[in-house]
Amino acid sequence: MAAGSLRRGHPLSPSVAVSTSAGTPLADAGVVPVSRKPAGGGRRDQVGSLLFLAPAAIWLLAITIYPVIATFRNSVFDETATSYVGLNNYKAIFSTASILVNFRNNVIWVVIFPFVVTFLGLVFAVLTERIRWSTAFKTIIFMPIVFSATASALIWRTIFDLDPHVGMVNAAVQTASDWVNPPGLYPVDVSAGQSVAALASSGLSPGASGSLQSTSTAVAGDTVELGLIRINAATLQVVGAQTAVPPSPSSGAISGLVYRDFSPSNPTVRGQLFPDELGLPGLQLTLLRSDGSSAGTTATDPHGNFRFAGVGSGSFRVQLDARNFRSGFTGIFWLGSQSLTPTSHLSQTAQALLSVPLVDLAMIVAYLWMWAGFAMVVIGAGLTSLNRELLEAGRVDGATEGQIFRRITMPLLSPVLVVVVVTMIINVLKIFDVILNMAPGSSQGDASTLALAMYNDGFTGGIHSGLSSALAVILFLLVIPAMVSNLRRIRG
């Protein structure tokens, strides 16, 4: 066959040597003979692939597809999964106040958490490019994600503990509070549970703003004895109280004693000083004139004694200032049921739906600690892939670092930031274990989300499989748009 008579795509048999008109074989002329695969080979490959994938496909159907179908089916049946009830379970969801609170909590998580964690991840990612020891910094920030959510929740439950001696947050607040508003040496309500008659028997009566005053008046040269009850023995050890000493009269002065009006040897007697009673040191006292103005101040010594010298003429009362009994910081119940509520002109239902429980904010802080490292790593990977020539061009053109970040870095990073935000939205829509382990039982109802309500209705107490299945369907439908959006962006 001549070269000029060859047609494109003409089949060439591998067993036939085809030559050009000059007698040169086609292989030598640069033409490679085409071999045809045996018939039926492609079909066998497809069958083999299907057989290879069959176990995984069956397993996927068993653990994913079937539960989804069963959940949709159970959502239209009663709790016994035998009687068809139609959409009654869905109607119950949107008409039950506690479940509407669950919706509110999910909205709070979705509105606050994804954007805050993305912002923190961006800040940390930028810092890792500008600070020394960036590897150690990234390790510290990323480390919390290694812990289980249950362990992290229990850690943060301790951190937010009400007792300042246990909870780190309340300990820090207590330090600041005591510095601004120091507590008294005797931080108790000394009039609590005491009748006026009991106070009078100890020579005292209630004064203004939590203070106590001597019942009788005194003039220069008099002595005054004032007894206090309900003072803790441990407090006396802390302040270094010593045995009470009866006051000695002094000319031109008013002397006195403030003591703990409790004698171990005579526990029922009040208003009488016994040898085994202790004075109250460090009490701040004010001498009041008959018109209520101050004539002087002093403090008691370790034995509880005091003296106002040079008081002049007239009658006076001795006042135990309210600051002596001022309570210190006792802790904020961060994990309690308190809420940040809107204005009171709204209805009670509207206030319940628009309020933000304090426990939600505490758990969001814990969840930020857990996921900020993930956001930092993802955004950091996006930063490393940026075209540095664009950043340098901006600097050459005179742009500040802030302008470069806003006008160049942020637009280039926007796809990565959106992926992080959407991923976190999916996470918080399904949040469950942190609330279960961190919120105490007294406030778990106020902090519950759809996933936790689904668990409680379906697996604890009275089983309501129909209602919990309906909750699962709603949660599934809420997650699908975010999941599809994320898959599209990742694929793009």
Characterization of this structure:
- Helices cover 48% and strands 9% of the residues.
- It contains 16 helices and ten strands.
- It is elongated.
- The chain folds into two domains: 221 residues, MetI-like fold (Orthogonal Bundle); 130 residues, Immunoglobulin-like (Sandwich), CATH 2.60.40.
- The longest helix is centred in the N-terminal third of the chain and has 34 residues.
- The chain has a five-stranded antiparallel β-sheet with strand order 1-2-8-5-6.
- With 492 residues, it is of the alpha+beta class.
- The N terminus is likely disordered.
- The two termini are 52 Å apart.
Task: Give a count of the beta strands, DSSP E runs of length 2 or more.
Answer: 10
Order of SSEs, N→C? Answer: HHHHHHHEEEHEEEEEEHEHHHHHHH
Estimate the strand proportion: 5-15%
CATH class call of the largest domain: Mainly Alpha
As laid out across the biggest beta sheet, the strand order is 1-2-8-5-6
* Biggest sheet architecture: 5 strands, antiparallel
- In DSSP terms, counting alpha (H) and pi (I) runs of 4 or more, how many helices? 16
CATH superfamily of the largest domain: MetI-like
Class inferred from helices and paired strands? alpha+beta
What is the distance, rounded to the nearest whole angstrom, between the alpha carbons of the first and last residues? 52 Å
How confident is the prediction overall: mean pLDDT? 84
CATH topology of the largest domain: MetI-like fold
Number of domains: 2
CA radius of gyration is 40 Å
Low-confidence stretches: 1-24
What is the global morphology? elongated
- What's the architecture of the largest domain in CATH terms? Orthogonal Bundle
Q: Percent of residues in helical segments?
A: 40-55%
